[in-house]
Amino acid sequence: MAEAKISPHSLNDLKNTTDDALANYLRGLQFRQDNTKLDVRLAIGYASVVIAAVTFTADYKLGWEATKGWTAVAVVAYALLNGAFTYWTWGVEKGCVFDGVKEGRKISVASKTNKHEPTYYLTVTDSGSAASARQIQAPFTTWFTADGYFVAKPFQQWLASSVEAIGAADVKNASRAETEEATAPGPEEIETVAQSTGSAQASGTESKSKSSKRSKRKG
Amino acid sequence: MFGSLAALQPRQLAAQILNFALVLSTAFMLWKGLSVFTNSSSPIVVVLSGSMEPAFQRGDLLFLWNRGIETQVGEVVVYNVRGKDIPIVHRVIRRFGGGSAPLSLLTKGDNNAADDTELYAHDQSYLDRSKDVVGSVVGFVPFVGYVTILLSEYPWLKTAMLIFMAASVVLQRE
């Protein structure tokens, strides 16, 4: 994943980078993306642009008097299409970042941020378990470094552990997050455990003193 | 800067271009909508000369209304000389006809010594209200029109402005 640096102070940049990363991650997990919402928006938008272009050409070639009537019709049509476009963007799409399906499990993700608040809010609708939408959130600092680099691992772990459908698709990240949440063993502890299991066959006292010596030296 | 564009999926790139296209087409359709509403081919014009001083100065923005059929003496109208595309803003000083007969007008700039007979086309001695007049002035904003004068005198400004607008809309993701 290309690590482009963004400004960690721009909420817009943070949200857009995270949205793109989320879509990339889910596509990488073999979720087949459903582009219907975006396609409808593009269709309505470009239809109104075409109407404007045709009106412009007709006016340029034939002049005002000849095209008056058609221009009036075009203006009304354009206003209606633009109204539909606005409704679609605000009412239907509503911050949708990813709509996809994998092995029959549909997932729909919409993201949101609040002004002056560095938190990423996700509304996830899963066709599998709970039918209603779930809200999860995390601060952007979870997956952004202080100077603005996006780190994929913690982001994927958060998603896999918070959303069932993603966790089911990406077991490695889901379980990794769970083990890390438990008390992480320190380096000394790991070594003493390794030594004692390695020399378990030797006599108890000897091995214990040996291992404690070794760990002291290494520590 | 353009790296962010290259990283987009094709549909998202289409969406960004659509944003810019919508800015242009909405501006154009608003203009056409105003034209239809006022029944005038050019509902907002800029004063280019000083022939109407002290009422209107060069650079003033004028708002036109073309649905008043019975133009009176004393009204300020904008008209195009037959064969030329330059709009002229002058005051009506005489009228002939009107009512059921076609209305003819004679105009003169407030700041001019003579009436507009010299300005009309070679075989034209009056204006036809229905054909030559773009509209009568119903309001104005002083000085704002100077931007249009600058754009027409330095055409490279138009291109520069358009490029700047395009870049800022396509590269911004809201």
Characterise this structure.
By secondary structure, chain A is an alpha+beta fold. Chain A has one domain (11-180). In chain A, 59% of the residues lie in helices and 14% in strands. The longest helix of chain A is centred in the middle third of the chain and has 30 residues, at 64-93. With 174 residues, chain B is an alpha+beta fold. Chain B folds into two domains: 9-38 and 151-171, no CATH class; 45-143, Umud Fragment, subunit A. Chain B is built from five helices and seven strands; from the N terminus they run ααββββββαβαα. In chain B, strand 4 and strand 5 form a beta hairpin. Chain B is elongated, with a radius of gyration of 21 Å. The interface between A and B is medium-sized, with 33 and 23 residues. Chain B: Keywords: Endoplasmic reticulum, Hydrolase, Membrane, Protease, Signal-anchor, Transmembrane, Transmembrane helix. Chain B: It is an enzyme of class 3 (hydrolase). Chain B: This is Signal peptidase complex catalytic subunit SEC11.
Short note summarizing the structure:
With 219 residues, chain A is an alpha+beta fold. Chain A has helices at residues 11-28, 36-62, 64-93, 152-162, 164-169, 171-181, 187-198, 204-218, and strands at 32-33, 96-102, 105-112, 119-126, 134-139.
List keywords for this structure.
heterodimer, A: 219 residues, alpha+beta, five-stranded antiparallel sheet, 8 helices, 5 strands, 14% strand, B: 174 residues, Umud Fragment, subunit A, 2 domains, 36% helix, transmembrane helix (chain A), membrane (chain A)
Oligomer category: heterodimer
Overall average pLDDT of chain B: 90
Distance from N terminus to C terminus of chain A (CA atoms, Å) equals 38 Å
The CATH architecture name of the largest domain in chain B reads Ribbon
Q: Give the strand line-up of the largest sheet of chain A.
A: 1-2-3-4-5
